[in-house]
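Hey,
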Amino acid sequence: MKVLHVCTGTLASLIMVISGGVSIVSYADDPTEKARMELIKIIEEDVRQTSRELEKSELDPRVMKAIATVPRHEFVPPEEQDYAYENRPLPIGHGQTISQPYIVAIMTDMLNLKPDSKVLELGTGSGYQAAILSELAAEVYTIEIVEALGLLAKERLQRLGYDNVTTKVGDGYYGWEEHAPFDAIIVTAAASHIPPPLIKQLKTGGRMVVPVGSRFMIQQLLVVDKGEDQKVVSRQVLPVVFVPVTGEH
């Protein structure tokens, strides 16, 4: 499995070679195409540098295609758009951030999503992670506790055509029982512990990716698997720094 990059004039193509087959996704007449392709290269290099921790040297090409497809500049405030394709988090208001693209890519990859997957996201933020998930899964449910951010993300996702994303303003700690169980759950803010309601709403055989640790300190990114016997097994992947989960917990 190999990812190649080609830039020719105003046309950038992400060429994915998968099991001998070649598919091409083109970005013609897009002023952000060069920045997106450069971002893909940077993420690939970061993945190679952390391959030991990730236990892989390449991410799923579908994930990389999603990163190359979703217009990150649409998910940041106007004053931050010049920095949208830099590999770093950016402020989105209300003390929240849009995550570093490398982190978005590896967390998405860890979920092992399939085209028919149903995913729950805790922490919509600007909606960027939800948009990435929507490129890979059948249904995405995302919850944001900050009403202003949640409503803006809903409008943005609808405007950009992410019709398989359902948003909600509320405390994501309790999950979204109405739509459970979920094949995968992703938490995009740091929790002091793995929320029990999310474990309950994770489907048997499902997976959760969540940063866990103390407020405003280095946390650990965990991959949590729920086995056929309902046993929950977690493993640490990388040290990370996320804004904390807000709400009662």
